[in-house]
Amino acid sequence: MKNLAQSNYSSALQTVKDLKAKYGTTWNAINPESAARMVTQNRFKTGLDIAKYTAAIMRKDMDEYDENASNYTQSLGSWHGFVAQQNIIAIKKHHKTTNKRYIYLSGWMVAALRSEFGPLPDQSMHEKTAVPALIKEIYDFLRQADAIELNDLFRRLEKGEDVQDQIDNFETHIVPIIADIDAGFGNEEATYLLTKKMIEAGACAIQIENQVSDAKQCGHQDGKVTVPHEDFIAKLNAIRYAFLELGVDDGIIVARTDSEGASLTQKLPVSTEPGDLASQYLAFVEAEEIAISDAKEDDVLLKRDGKLVRPVRLSNGLYKFKDGSNIDRVVLDCITSLQNGADLLWIETDTPNVKQIAQMVNRVKAVVPNAKLVYNNSPSFNWTLNFRNQVYEEMLAEGDNMTGYDRNNLMDAQYDDSELCHRADDKIRTFQADGSREAGIFHHLITLPTYHTTALHMNDLTEGYFGEEGMLAYVKGVQRQEIRKGVACVKHQRMAGSNLGDDHKTFFAGDKALKADGAKNTSSQFESKKNTTERELVLEK
């Protein structure tokens, strides 16, 4: 992205100058420098521009991961454009670059927080349109972050500051979104139509799961029902066609399998020859050998290894998989998806265990060597307890004396400063690097972090504000921290676009513009001054 902003500015400047020459005096009020500045501050004109740009980023990152597994990528789930915006602003501030950082759009959070029906469980009951609407909203906020930061730089440039290099080498806040389409919200045509809306909103990566659309469950809940491979492949094809139709030739498909925790299937596929995909799927279905005379009226029967068998069918019509077949089903799902157009895999697991994930992924890699995983570092896991249990087993195997630990109470705070705790916390700290190196994890994400941080921060603020601390709870816990940590939205008027709007109004109306940024704007209290003390900072109204 070197010199990108400046080249856009120069090109736009010349374009507007040419237009002024063409249209003559009717364009006298248009200032080419102002127009070029606005063009520079809004590089991405459409969601398709964003999808094409971010798809190229993901493809580059995937290639770099193949070369070196330390080049893994990360994201946090966001349920609002502002949350995503502050996430990326903070990434740029703390890490100086957005390289290999994405945003995850969780269907769970759309259902829980964005549906007009009110809060819903993760069962695809929310409106389809809520998903592309959130993608668009996120990119609207990220584009505004670009405009605000560049506007500040142009203001500083006009005042004589040497910030030209920062403008020339400006790094956009636009990053890839991996967007959850659940199980496709219907048949393959419905999946295609919704995928187009998501791509047009800016999504370059679509994640789809192999559950039955109308019986979809959260990956960390019971009752999951998977579909035969042929049905899932049809939806993979639908997504690819949507990408191609819209000109996003290198769009990314993330194929998720829920077979690790699924024990049911809705239908039995039709096998046309021994060993085909349908046959392999049917082999996982639990069945009992019977004689034809024992078959009931309207029974469903299969011929298996020369014998007549009856699939185990529940009262709701669903068929049961064999116990212990889940890992083999996961491996077959992954291989089949990669061989039929998927780019990345997603395996839902019941615990975050690198060795267990690696065992599955390595079996896939034996067939598809460059197989890569998107992994959910899920808040549904009790990370503390899981890793304390893992370390307990390791220490026990190493011959350590474990009598000081109650295996049934390892969450107890009394162990927080113990060797077991320190070792467990260290494994949590390195989980992403370890998983990427040992288990083929290209992308680590947390699906619901901002759901939990919002709840936690409201809990803490509410406790003090409605208690004896009163206003001090907000000042100490929020505003003082924002000021000292340089959080962008402490000046919330600026963050909402007030300064940007003032400059636009000046472009449009000149000296007659009625601007918000004046002597009575209380935001000026938050300007950085060396000698400002906290006593001099008063609350914004």
UniProtKB/TrEMBL annotation:
Keywords: Lyase, Magnesium, Metal-binding
Pfam families: ICL (PF00463)
Active site: C218 (proton acceptor)
Catalytic reactions on record: D-threo-isocitrate = glyoxylate + succinate
InterPro entries found in the cross-reference section: ICL/PEPM, Isocitrate_lyase, Pyrv/PenolPyrv_kinase-like_dom, Pyrv_kinase-like_dom_sf
Region: Disordered, residue numbers: 518-541
GO MF annotations, alphabetized: isocitrate lyase activity; metal ion binding
Biased composition (Basic and acidic residues): 527-541
Binding sites annotated in the UniProt record for Mg(2+): D180
Keyword Magnesium: yes
Cofactor: Mg(2+)
NCBIfam families: PRK06498.1 (NF005074)
Name the UniProt record assigns to this protein: Isocitrate lyase
Species of the source: Flavobacterium frigoris (strain PS1)
